[in-house]
Structure formats: structure tokens, C-alpha cells
Fold these 4 entries.
Entry 1:
Amino acid sequence: MIPGPIEISPSVGAAAAGAPPSHTSPGLIAAFGNALRGMRQVWRADASSQPFVIAGSGTLAMEVAAANLVGPGDRVLVVKTGYFSDRMVEILRRYGAEVAEVGAEVGDAPTVDQVRAALAAGGPWKALFATHVDTSTAVRIDPEPLARLAAEHGALSVFDGVCAVAGEPFEMEGWGADLCFTASQKAIGLPPGLALMVASDRALAARQARTASPPPLYLDWLSWLPIHRAYEEGKPSYFATPATSLVMALAAGLAEIFEEGVEARWQAHQRAADAMRAAWAALGLRLVPKDGLAANTLSALTLPSGLKPAEVVPRIAAQGVLVAGGLHPAIRDTYIRVGHMGVVIHRPIDLERTVRAVAAGVAGDAESAVAAFRRAL
Ligand code: PMP
């Protein structure tokens, strides 16, 4: 129940555990093509967009975003909501970008008006970066107005969807977003190891227009583009060896999402999160995110004063449930994080067990928390 790596389904596990296919085998080519088409559906992206599947973690996806879109002297605005937006700032600076930041107190997010004002105060902007759900605070922003604001300023909009994709609504085409990336070990429900992203045709064009200072070869979309196109056309191809077992798992995981339906999966995350929040309220645990900003993929819970994650997390683990400690440096010692994404949202029995374990960890009343959970579900 940590916010990733999460549990995987039996069919994803089986797909990943087969004999590792060759990168040119018909089965792998078919799975890769299906996975790319499936990603467009999950991201709600149009046919002109380009999905990429590159071996690496979510941080690699962040590097790929920066390396392809940003060069020395480019102005970018980062909307800051926690630890992972700080990481994005650091990465962008290493690529030579001039980074402006618009932030808020821990647990809060800048308003759309504040972002609008920050854009109006500077520029010209190459891109706006925002974290859909910051896993360090569980703060969720609304990407839609930010994507529109970026477009109004002629800037690309880039979303870190690592703790959101497949768990929170996202409409790449409808909102005009230019890039959204995630990592396989989160709500999409695979083992760790894949950086997954979908780029708009505008984002690809921005890379193609950059002739000076090309990105490192492995990070360059243009290295991968012919390979990904070939896989969608059902043809073998090679640039660098893909994580073939994980690609098999990706195709299986996406197929499961489509069985349920993308929107149904978002709604199931919402229901599970609402029920968990009802339990936290019954236990008297305050959420780190301010009202209306709490993500559906995880809960960040402020501990009663005097309790520290270093004692509470092991007490919860003693009940057989693994949750995470704090991550945001400003509040690290005051809160814990409980993931609720992927297969577990359809297992109320495990969610209840988590509620009971957390209740034990904070010496709260498990029965009333479980009752609140059941009523809300
Ligand atoms: N962004 C967000 C929002 C994340 O939650 C994480 C990982 N927890 C990352 C980026 C980095 O991903 P990884 O740990 O897979 O490198």
C-alpha cells in the first residue's frame, strides 16, 4: 500500500514472467504495437500524438521531457506542489533552462490566477511544467486550465503524471496538453522499469526544430521514433534493446484497463479514495493537501502530535500492511503516505485491512473507521 511500486495483477505478473522475448519476435512486435495504441487511449490522445516506451524509471521520463524540449536559455515555468516539482526544476536547470517557479505552501497549490500572473510577468515561454499529483504531498492540480494557459502563451504544457495516469482523469487531446509521462510501477499497474510518455505533434515538432545541442542519444525522441513507428506497423526494428518482458506486461496491463474501461477505472479510484478519506476522518487524521486538492491515488496523513513515521510505519507493518513514511523535506517527520491505486482499489477487503492497520498504528478506533469506510464505499 505504498504509492508505488504497487501490487500487480496475476495476468500482468504472468506476462512479465514469460521467457524474455526477442525484440524482433512477432509476439513482442504485436504487444509493442498494441501497447502504443493503448497508451493513446489511456492518455486520451489523438492519432497525431506519439507514445514512447523507454526502459527506465519515472525520473528518466523527466529527463527525456527536459532533454527533448528544453535547451540552454529557454524560459520555462514550473508550477510547484512538492518534492517532484523541485526535482523537475533541478533537471531543467541542468539542461540550461532559465527556470521560473510559481509555488505555494506545502499541501497547497498555486491558483490558476497566480499561474496566469507568473506567465504574464515573464516570457517568452518555451514550456510550462506541472505535477498532476505530487506523491510527496498528495496534492493534485487541475491540468486543464494550465494546458490552456500555456497554449495561450505559445508554450508547451508538460505534465508529470507519474502518480496520476490511469488513476486520475486526464484528457490529452481535449485539454490540448503537449506531454504527459508516467512510470510503470504506479497506477498503470506494472513492475518498475518503464518510462511511459505520450507527446503531442507540437511537442515532437519542438524537438525536430532543435538542431543545435541535440539530446543524449538514448534520451532523444528522434532515436526512438522510427522504432516505435515500426512496431505500430508490425515490423521488427532496433535502436536499443527494449525491456521486452515489461512490454509484454504493459500490453497485458492495458488490456485489463480496457476490460474495465478507462473512465470506470478513474471512477473506481475516486470511490476508493473517498472511502479511505472517510476512514481517515473517523480516525481524526488530517490530510496534508488542503481542501479540494487531495489526489485519488494516495493519501498523505498528518500524524497526531507526538507520533513519528519511524514508529508508526513499523507498527502498521506489524499488521501486515506496508505504508510509506513522509517524503517532503519540510514535513517529513510528521506524516505518512498510503497508496490506493491499481488492482487494490477493487479489493475492499484489503483496503479495510489497511484502515485497520493504520488505526492500530495511531491507536485509533478501527471499528468506527471501518464503518465509515463501508458507508462511504
Ligand atoms: N514524479 C512523481 C510524481 C513521482 O511520484 C515519482 C516517483 N515516486 C517520480 C516522478 C520519479 O519516478 P521514479 O521514482 O520512478 O524515478
Entry 2:
Amino acid sequence: MGERVILHVDMDYFFAQVEELENPSLKDTPTAVCMVSDRLSSMGTVASANYVARKYGVKSGMPCFNAKKICPQITLLPARKRHYEQVSGRVMEILACHCKILEQVSVDEAYLNVSEKTGFDNVEKLIVQIKKDIFDGERLTCSIGAGPNKLIAKMGSSEKKPDGHTIVKPHEVEEFLASKPVEKLFGVGEKTAAKLKEMGVDTVSKMRALSRERLTTVFGEARGGRLYDFSRGIDDSAVRERQKEQYGRLKSLRKTTNDAGEVRLLLDELTDEVHQKLKSESMSCRTISATFILDDLTTMTRSKTLPTHTSDLAVMKETAHKLVDEFMSSNNAVRRAGITASNIRKETGQKSLFEF
Ligand code: DCP
Ligand code: CA
Ligand code: CA
């Protein structure tokens, strides 16, 4: 068996970079995209900040209010999630052209097993090509890590951000990890880092001095074992194509209501989105579920399984309407509602019963 070469691709300041495309003047000024909660429009948090804004200390997860305070000239934009998902889908398609197996792990990152295409000696050429293809296609930059496993590839992609790449060959793994502070090791969150520091361990090389027994005693069998392996650069997990099991959307109503018509309208809008997503991935579904969140935040779900798989928008909407009408007839006041398509499979090209 030849050596494994794994890439991890992560888009640079993804949401904010996508916004810059449409308004290039934002490029040189601090800019952030805010995720605004449906109801409380003033309570947004920063989803993504460009690198100019980061110089002022603006970070993801920070309340937008604080971002404005530390950087008054910042441009804050509302998130357009559906748009980013569409761009993401196109980026993933570009990546899929470069490997047999692609594992998308979030909206802006993926692992690629490229062992069949290249060894470490030529991997840089492939990385440059992938970056070029994404830039030519979408005008977006990304950062890429290459390593003998997912752990090292993932850590490599964040080494030289933005628009950078890092290649860690198998014999370089040990040195790559050794001097890193523990919080840089993948899988070490804030709590674990704090605990390690309490134990006098602040670098990965010091972590390696801890026995497996010690780590599993402190952190439990699974997590402790993983920390032991990760500190040595060991990660045997496979790059695995993930099949989505369901597609769903949930949204607040403008106000709490017991009018079935209003809930239907909202679900129509969400069904359009779910349907588009299914179609874009050539999937069909057999089960439609509607979720209703009541004023006291109780969540209720109603489902219908159809006789055959479908990706027919009218069928999906009609099923959702039935679910709404049945649910609302018992006079529930609904605050949020959602739709989920599950029981998913690749479209076979065969007509469904409804289409005959
Ligand atoms: N995201 C979010 N809320 C967070 C973190 C991220 O909504 N707390 C979204 C917006 C990001 C996207 O996910 O653009 C990807 O997250 P990353 O952590 O990869 O961050 P960025 O891509 O924004 O920046 P970086 O250049 O550091 O990768
Ligand atoms: Ca990113
Ligand atoms: Ca990411």
C-alpha cells in the first residue's frame, strides 16, 4: 500500500469573502457578517470577519454590538445563508473533480483523499491547481493543508491563513506538532486545554510525556485515548463521503399564530428551499415532516411517509399542507415551524408513481 495523502481545504473568511465579491470596496475595510436571530434583530453575533476587521480584534462568535464598539467603522452585513450554501455547493463540486472521495465537514471545508493522484513529492502542484480552480471559478481564496491523515491536514490548513498552504510529510509530523500549544491540537477545546494546563502541560510535546493511562483517567477512555494518539500525530480515520440523511429548514413566524394559512405560507417558502437543495444533489425523499414550535417552546413533529420516493415540489407542498392542517385543527398557537425531507436516496431517473 502506498502512502496516504490527505488534503483539508478551508475557505478563507468564508461568509465575509463571499460578500466582498459583490462589493469589492469592502475588501480594504473592516467587514463582518452577522447572524441575526429571527426575532431579536439587535442580538446578532459575528459569523465571519474579514482579516482587516480581525486586526481590531473582531472574531466569530462575538456579539455584533461588541464588534461595533471595538471597531466603530466596521461594516456589518446580515448573513445570507442560502446564498453561501449555494457558493459552497459549487466549491465542493470543484473539489470533487480532484479526488475520488470527498468528505465535506462544514459549509466551507472538506477533506480529500488524493492518495491515488499524488504522493507528497508532487502534492504542491495539486494544491496550487485546486486553489487556482476555486479562484478561477468563484473568485474566492482558501487555505489547504496536506498530511498523512485528517488530523495533520486539518491542522495544516490553518497554519498559513488566508490564501496559504502547508504540507506536512510523514517524517515531519512529529516536529510539526511538538512546539504547538495544546489548544492548537485538533480536538482540544477550551476546557481540555485548561485542564491540561492545570497539569502543567502547555505544549503538545509535553502532552506526549503523559501516559495513555494518565490521559484516560483524567479525560475518559475515548477522549483520553484520542488525545494520546493525536499528540503523536496518529489518526487512522478514513475520509468518508457523507450521505445526507435529511434536509430541513426551520423559521420563525412573524408572530405567534393559530392560523393554518400563515403556517402553510411559511412552510411553502421552506419547502421551496428544501426542494431546491434536494434537486441540486439529485436526491429524492419519501418522508416529509413538519415541525411546530409552540409559544412555550414545546416542539411537536408530524410526519407522513409517501408510497414512493419523490422530488416533486407539488407533492412535497401538498404533504406539508396536510400536516399543517391536521396539526392546526387542534388549535395550537405556533411560533416557529419547519419542514424536513428524510428517507433520502439518490434519484434513479425512474418516474415516481405520481408522474404516470
Ligand atoms: N460561522 C458562523 N458562526 C461561527 C463560526 C463560523 O456562522 N461562530 C460560519 C461563518 C464562516 C463559516 O461558518 O464564514 C466558516 O467558519 P470558519 O470557522 O472556517 O471561519 P471563516 O471561514 O469565517 O474564517 P477563516 O478564514 O478563519 O477560516
Ligand atoms: Ca474558513
Ligand atoms: Ca471552516
Entry 3:
Amino acid sequence: MIYLDHAATTRIRDEVFDAMLPYLKEEYGNPSSVYALGRSAHKALDRAREQVRAALGARAAREIFFTGCGTESDNWAIRGAALENAQKGRHIITTKVEHHAVLDSCKYLEKLGWEVTYLDVDSSGRVNAGDVAGAIRPDTVLISVMFANNEVGTINPIREIGELAREKGILFHVDAVQAVGHVPIDVENMGIDMLSLSGHKFYAPKGVGALYIRNGVTIEKFLQGGAQERRRRAGTENVASIVGMGEAITLAMQEMPEEMRRLGKLSAHMLSRLQKEIPGTRLNGHAEERLPGNVNISLPSVRSEAALFHLDLEGIACSSGSACTSGSVEASHVLLAMGRSEREARSALRFTMGRETTREEIDRTVDVLKIIAEQKEK
Ligand code: PLP
């Protein structure tokens, strides 16, 4: 199989699996227990928290809170910040191209009386910092803008928006689920107050994530219960997966410069072949400000669903949109917000490469795409 859907999820790394195993077997203690077995699990959490802190450039490990997934982190950040600041104001700014974890959290708050501004993006899927500034009102309490888009890979001007938010004293949340472990992030330098991440996007297991919450920022609890995570996120921690996520993030940081170079080259190679050999191929997303391993294209007169089916028969796994909408026939809200027609949006294919992707796999994929495009022309 040729796996080109790393934005949907990744295969757990061997080193990560090995690091997790003891915590599934002999080190099974509850980190809240006071005896040695519990203390050992607690120590493992401390180590992973430090690993995540280092990767984000956060000041203190206590600013990292483990969650069950990226979706939980997004829900907690948005709902928690809104509820905590309800007396100050009830206006939120976000964008039209966010993941549904963010969009649906905002829609939920709208039902409770909050007002949300969904900003437009340009034709590359990028939000303009000036538009964020223009949308700020006296009652704005939260700005939530994704670091990198999960469908088209476009990277937003996070530092600029962070500066703006800081100047105005507004909380700034960033959904960095697609960016963490793949491109450099520095929460201090970028003025980020809250940041969501998810382990399974960088070779850790599914079902574990984290929310960075800057020291001094208080948001309402999302889960009520025990005193875990400094009383802010109840529920016995998923120790083995958290250990895996810590290991995975450290490895990703070590390999990032080389991996960015390698994937950037592979993407450029794929795009240049496609544009030469299938006339009319259009890149969806920003030409430069994009995740290195993402190639999202629209092929002329090819329906994505039919192409996905054909690619699958050839053993090639990719996606037509975000993971959550693949399998459904709705046109992508991201591509429509970028000004693509329904037709173009319905012909988009997303290829996302990873650590094990080779040039041979990319060449084989382009060859299959050529056959698909030629068949359509007949
Ligand atoms: N945010 C973005 C940008 C994503 O791409 C995803 C997953 O695809 C999520 C949030 C949700 O993460 P999780 O699958 O861990 O719930």
C-alpha cells in the first residue's frame, strides 16, 4: 500500500510503541496513587509534559494539560474561554476554514447567546491579520485561528495575529493539530495563549492530545471530576499514550529540519510532474506558506470520489478533504471559502506525505493519476 493520508492519521513509530509498552504492562499504576507504582506513572507524566513543553517553546511544563484528543482540546479552549469571560463580552473571532472541532464549538456557543465572526480567507486559504484587526470589538474575548489547515496545508500569519491579540488583551487560541511536530512553533514568540495538539498526527497513538494554556490564563473546566491535571482536566490520565506522545514529539523535533527539507522536495516534485503531465492541474492552497508534506490539487474533469476509488484499487490511500468528511459527498467548506466552484471543490484530492514516503511512491501515484485523468478525457 502507498499511504498518502498522513494528515488523517499516522502509523505509530516503533520507538514510540516501545516506550509505551512498560506502561501498559508492568508500570500500570494510577498516577494519582501515592505508593511507588503510582509515583512511577506520575514521573512518566512529568517527563512527557516536559517533552511537550520543550517542543512548543512554553515557559513551564505546568502549562501543558493532557487531553483525550485534538477535538477535546479545541472544545475545551473555546468553550472554556468563552464561559470564563462571559461577563467581559460574548464575541468570538474565528475563520471559515477551521476544523469542525472549532466551528462546531463556536456554533454551540452561538446557541447559548455568543456572537461569532467567521472571517473569510483569500484564494490560498490564508486569513489576513488586517481582517482579524478589523473584526475586533469591545466585547471580543477570544480569537481562534488554526496554525495550518488540515485540507490544503496553508499556514496562517500566527505571529502577527498573536501580536494583535496581545495588544488588545484578547485571548488567542491556535488549533495546531496539523502543525505540531511538522513545522516550528514557539508559543512565547508567537503570542499564543492556548494551543491544541493531537498525538496521532505525529506518530503517537490515537486518543491522546494536549492543550497548552499560558500561565495566568484561566478557562472553565470542560470535564468535571477528580483532581487530575492540577484540577483543570478531570479523568485518570492515559499514561501509556501520553508517554508515547512525549517520545513522538521529541523525535519529531529532532528530525524536523531534515524532514521539512525532504518532504518539501517530494511535494515540489509531485506538483511539478502533475502540472506538466496533466494539463489544468491546480494547486489548492498557498504556494509557499504551506505544510511541507501536503499536496492538494484539483484535476480537470475528475470527480474526487471516483478518483479515490480508482486510487484505492491501485493500493493508494489519500483523501478528498478532511478525514472527517471523507466518505461523505459534501463539497469541502475550506475549498468553497477559498472561492473554488462546487465543481472544483468536488474534484480535489489531498495527498499528505510522511516519514516513510518515498520518491518511488510519489512517481507511482502520479502515473496512476495520469491514467485516471486520461480516462476522464475520453
Ligand atoms: N483540528 C485539526 C486541524 C485537525 O486536522 C484534526 C483532525 O483531523 C482535529 C482538530 C481533531 O483532532 P483529533 O482527531 O485528535 O480529535
Entry 4:
Amino acid sequence: MDFNEQALTNRLSGRYIGSGIRFFNEVESTNDVAFNLALHGAPEGTIVIADLQTKGRGRMKRVWQSPPRCNLYTSIVLRPLTDPASTSQIPLMTGVAAADALSRYCPRDVTLKWPNDVQIRGKKVCGILAEMKTAKDPRGNFVIVGIGVNINIRKKNFDESFREIATSLKEETGRDISRLDFAVEFFDNFEKWYRTWLKMGFEPVREAWLAYASMVGRQVQVVFQGDVRTGEVHGIDESGAMLLEDENGIIKKIMAGDATLVRH
Ligand code: BTN
């Protein structure tokens, strides 16, 4: 089945997320396109999808490998009328939606690694990059949530530095996966979790996130801008920060960084 604007429009008809769809053969970054559309008034639920990104961006100014016609690169425009502080919960909510969608293909093998990497059997399959704009008038606030999912990329085509730590749905299932079917599954789950979050707040999201979490109760090392912290993970708080118990039994909030398990 072709993966294009018409096919997505047909399959997402009547949905809130996907009420506007912009499909591109090539962009620098879907997050940049969505950001510009939002600046010009694009409504909540607009999605931008591209077949290829030439400047796909990851967290911490990293490159997101975005080869043509094999993966999902998408960004969603959100305009939640919630307290701007709670927008830090959106990437975690998105991680839960992606984990639910991926679990349809690899049941029981999907985990979430703080802050919002989605993994299959311990290898990264999906990354999330949220960017926000605050305006004087809060009705002008918006959040762009960008999602990259490795769908049919082969192991040999990952950059060498990712080859052992990243994976794709095709590598994990051994078959070609329809990008259209996966995208619809993901957007449906995203809409469900976004509505839940708006209506009920972070608690149901946190519970679902913790059920997928691979690090709770384990010793980890968190590195952020040269600062290294180690401790046992206790969970996440309402801002999405990691709660880390240090060797003195003091629980610290870790707002950002890269976490790895410490093996003894
Ligand atoms: C990460 O794990 O570092 C986040 C990766 C986010 C990648 C997606 S792909 C679609 C959107 N456009 C971008 O340039 N980045 C995000």
C-alpha cells in the first residue's frame, strides 16, 4: 500500500489527530515544517510527515538518521490550554502511545528508557523530540512533538555508531512492515493518550509509563553536559524528571540526560 497524503487522509478520516495532514517527499526536519505551520496558525491535530529528512534532529543536538522511504518521520501540532509547566509531560505521553503501537508488532518486548526512548529488546526503535513556543497570549502557545520510528531500515544501513544500539520493526519481526498501518496505529494511540492526559492529567500516563519502564529499581548512571550521577531509579515525578536515590539515600530529581544501566 502506498504511503502518501491521500492514503493517510483516507485512513485517518474523522480523527482529531490528523485532522490536517501535510505530506512531503523531502524536508530538512518535519519539526521545523510543523513549527512554521503552527506559527502561521495551523490548528491542533495537524500532522506533518516526510518520506526523507535531510536534517533530521534528535535530542541534545544529535542527528536523527532519516533515510528515504523506509521509516516514519512525523511531527504533530498541539495547542494544549494547560499550564505550560505540564507540557514536559507530553514527550512521556508520546512514548507511551508509541510503546502501545509498537507492542502490537512485538508484544512484551517493548520498553521505555528515560526520558523517552522506545526500545525493543533493549535497542532503540523510536525517538521523540518535543519543542515548544510560548506567547504573551497563552492561546498562541503550541508544542510540536516529533516522532521518528525505525520501521524498515536494515541493520547494515544504520550508521556504524548506532548499529549495535538501534533496531527497526523489520529487524525485530523479520518481515516488511506497512508504514501506513503503523502510522495509523500510532496516531490512534496518540489521540487516545492525548485525550486521556487532557481529561485526567498525568497520573494515568505515569502509571502506563512505569509499566513499560526498564530502569525502575535498577542502578543507573546519568550523564548530562559532563555531569555524572549514579543511583537507583525510583520512578518519575509529575514533571517527567527521573527520581534517583543516591548512595546516601537522598532522592534527587534529574531533569535531563542520558541514562545507562550500571551492571555489577
Ligand atoms: C531522539 O531520540 O534523539 C529524538 C529523535 C526525534 C526524531 C524525530 S523524526 C521526526 C522529527 N523531526 C526531526 O527532525 N526530529 C523528529
